[in-house]
Amino acid sequence: MDEELEDRKCISTKLLCRVLIVLLVAMVVLIVFLIFFAVIANSSACKDGLAAQQKCQNTTQLLQHQLTQAQESFRGAEAQAVSCKRTVITTLEDPSPVN
């Protein structure tokens, strides 16, 4: 009976040791990947890419603003052209003599 208990303790201890070793290896691998990611994320190429992306966004916003202004100006000119056209048509249709 004592021998069975000894065997169970030994198996349990061996299993616990193996699980701890696997967890330790997994932690080491994760730490290595974390360090690798931190180095890559702080690289100058990554920072340059982020700066280029922000510059592109700023340029896009400026272009969108300019486009909006141009569209508003076009709508105003279009409304003015319609008004002029109506005036011309009204003038041509009105047969009253000019003295």
TrEMBL record:
<dbReference type="InterPro" id="IPR024886">
    <property type="entry name" value="BST2"/>
</dbReference>
<dbReference type="GO" id="GO:0051607">
    <property type="term" value="P:defense response to virus"/>
</dbReference>
<dbReference type="GO" id="GO:0045087">
    <property type="term" value="P:innate immune response"/>
</dbReference>
<dbReference type="Pfam" id="PF16716">
    <property type="entry name" value="BST2"/>
</dbReference>
<keyword id="KW-0472">Membrane</keyword>
<feature type="transmembrane region" description="Helical">
    <location>
        <begin position="15"/>
        <end position="40"/>
    </location>
</feature>
<dbReference type="GO" id="GO:0008191">
    <property type="term" value="F:metalloendopeptidase inhibitor activity"/>
</dbReference>
<keyword id="KW-0812">Transmembrane</keyword>
<keyword id="KW-1133">Transmembrane helix</keyword>
<dbReference type="GO" id="GO:0005794">
    <property type="term" value="C:Golgi apparatus"/>
</dbReference>
<protein>
    <submittedName>
        <fullName>Bone marrow stromal antigen 2</fullName>
    </submittedName>
</protein>
<dbReference type="GO" id="GO:0009986">
    <property type="term" value="C:cell surface"/>
</dbReference>
